[in-house]
Amino acid sequence: MIRSELIQKIADDNPHLYQRDVERIVNTVFDEITGAMSRGDRVELRGFGAFSVKKRDARVGRNPRTGETVNVDEKHVPFFKTGKLLRDRLNGKS
């Protein structure tokens, strides 16, 4: 599902809301999650999962095409851990 499909689904399920309001709500939720993660905070949505930021240390990598060694800088990457309820639903448990 992509963002526009999510917005359309919520708008269809809530006919009392305007599409532009639903779009603003969805964008605000995503902006808040992104903002919290950029500050290094953890975002937990009960029953769904938790978003966090993991640090990857600098290392020496290798270019697979040429075999040449390459320095890879330290970086921060998003990480998602599924919640128990989501894992159970994906595995067919009620």
UniProtKB/TrEMBL annotation:
Heterodimer of an alpha and a beta chain. PROSITE patterns: HISTONE_LIKE. CDD domains: IHF_B. This is Integration host factor subunit beta. Belongs to the bacterial histone-like protein family. This protein is one of the two subunits of integration host factor, a specific DNA-binding protein that functions in genetic recombination as well as in transcriptional and translational control. InterPro entries: Hist_DNA-bd, Histone-like_DNA-bd_CS, IHF-like_DNA-bd_dom_sf, IHF_beta. It comes from the Bacteria. It comes from Sulfitobacter indolifex HEL-45. Coiled coil: none annotated. Keywords: DNA recombination, DNA-binding, Transcription, Transcription regulation, Translation regulation. PANTHER family: DNA-BINDING PROTEIN HU, INTEGRATION HOST FACTOR SUBUNIT BETA. HAMAP family: IHF_beta (MF_00381).
